[in-house]
Write a structure and sequence with these properties.
The chain is mostly helical. The protein is 64% helix and 10% strand. Strand 2 and strand 3 form a beta hairpin. InterPro entries: IrrE_HExxH (IPR010359).
Length: 130
């Protein structure tokens, strides 16, 4: 987790832990990411990486389709922080395309595996068109 905290700090974010009830994390107005300390370590890491994605993309609060796009971007950023193509390929070589098994092997929530796949597919499509 320390490397993610350092990454958050490099983006200008502080990091604190507190019980947030149903929420995993959020960025306060004073640029502090609050991580729900009642969640598992896996979910804390994913939440911090996700919030770093919002900061890196300079997201502001949005609703509707824009909010969905921002959440996808933050998840893709988080996935790339937490694992890379080599790790993904090894996991897929061991378990095939099963999302739940890949997520368990990579130590991330399933939504980050889906986000990584979505980004990889989009990048591949762009490369083929160019």
């Amino acid at each position: 987790m320390y490397d993610l905290i350092e990454h958050a700090e490099s983006l200008g974010l502080g990091v604190q832990f507190d019980d947030l009830g149903a929420r995993h994390a959020h960025i306060r107005d004073d640029d502090v990411v609050v991580i729900n300390d009642a969640r598992s370590y896996l979910l804390q890491r994913a939440a911090l990486a996700h919030e770093c994605g919002h900061r890196a993309h300079r997201h502001v609060h949005a609703v509707g389709a824009r909010e969905t796009r921002q959440e996808w971007q933050a998840d893709e950023y988080a996935a790339n922080l937490l694992f890379g193509p080599g790790e993904y390929a090894r996991a897929e070589g061991m378990y095939g395309p099963d999302i739940a098994l890949l997520a368990r092997e990579l130590g991330v929530p399933a939504r980050l595996v889906l986000a990584w796949r979505r980004a990889w597919s989009a990048n591949l499509s762009r490369a083929l068109l160019n």
